[in-house]
Automatic annotation (TrEMBL), chain A:
Organism the protein comes from: Acrocarpospora corrugata
Identification of the protein by name: Methylamine utilisation protein MauE domain-containing protein
CC annotations in GO: membrane
Span of domain Methylamine utilisation protein MauE: 19-153
Topology in membrane: Multi-pass membrane protein
From TrEMBL, chain B:
Keywords: Membrane, Transmembrane, Transmembrane helix
Origin: domain of life: Bacteria
Stored Pfam families: Thioredoxin_4
TM spans (from-to): 30-52
Protein name per UniProt: Membrane protein
Basic and acidic residues composition bias: residue spans: 1-15
Species of origin: Acrocarpospora corrugata
Amino acid sequence: MAAHIHVSRWSLSAQGAVPWVTTIARLLLGGVLIAAGWLKIGTPALSVQAVKAYELLPGGAATAVGYGLPILEIVFGALLVLGLLTRFSAVVAGLLMLAFVAGIASAWARGLRIDCGCFGGDGTLAAGQEPAYLTELLRDAGLVLCAAWVAWFPPGRLALDSLLGLSARPDDEEHDLDEENDS
Amino acid sequence: MSKGAREASARERIAAQRAASRKQDQRRRLMIITAVGAVAVAAIGLGSWYAASRNAAEKPVLAQAPATVNADGTLTLGKPGVTGPVVEVYEDFQCPACKALEDSSGSTIKNLAAEGKAKVIYHPITIFPQEPTRSNSIRAASAARCITDGRQWLAFHDKLFQNQPGETVEGFALNDLVSWGEDVGVTAPGFPECVTSQKYAQAQANQSAKVLKNDKLTGTPTIRVNGKDLPNQTAYVPAKLREAVLAAGR
């Protein structure tokens, strides 16, 4: 009996922590996206060049991605930080990160010697610099996990979605609402 | 009305009210989502358009400044009497970032020289230590050294960047280099032989090593205005590059 009470208390406090974890994951993922976009958006030629350095996309597509990616990162980063359209933004950000993971892994596998160009730069390594594929992959994989968490448990605390009543199920009443809808 | 019936109708009323408010709420939610989505899409569209316009290269002027090939393999581009500001362009024909710089800012650099606003010096160097990029670069740059006419040299320079091979393949084949030279108007009888024998390969390697050491380059491309390196955020944005050069001339 005592054990049972303990468990339920633990799960209660864990449930209380979940929205906060979501908030932290949102800020982390959104912050990284905004920084990455901001550092690239001022120099489109380099951003295009960094995409081309992967040698994955044909010229026209690489140019379009080079122009569009920085602002895309900033917009979805801002949505995540604000907690607006949280689940959708997390899914988009997660797919974006997965695409980066695939790109970096493929560059590594093909033996290219490039910089990921994640935070600006033209994708070339400085003289004497070694590629940092593993670090880049681990970082982006961590961000994929953040995105997955946010998509699973949106919108977290301090989210505009809650303020505007956009989150269909305010976090704590989730189950009550379910039951009500079912009856 | 019986008590049961009254209760039933009350319940129905409440249910209807609830359904109505739920519908209203749904409509409101849809409106907000649509509005946020529209703003996000507009921002992404505008941002991309801004990036593209920021990167738009200047139209090249028709009358280019006189160009002189120097003994060390560099090219000086500038109107007679213009001594500054001096814009030095260090680039490797094989380096993709240099091609990107040429694509966005190449015409601005030439235009500034044509307008008498700058004296431009091109330094073609070879920075790659590994193959196949090193040999590609040496072949291209030593072929450029076979051209003595400045105007032809610059056209050949542009042609090399247009035809830049990937970094993992062998490119800049000798016979291609010869025919590109002929395309830009090189008629000197010794030119094909000079290219195919790679007459200046050693000179190019030596010159590169010397420049890398003496001019303290961190990489290519480097744009140096009056001896000071321009940051990439300036060099790669045509309008900012122009502004920086003009400011150095004031």
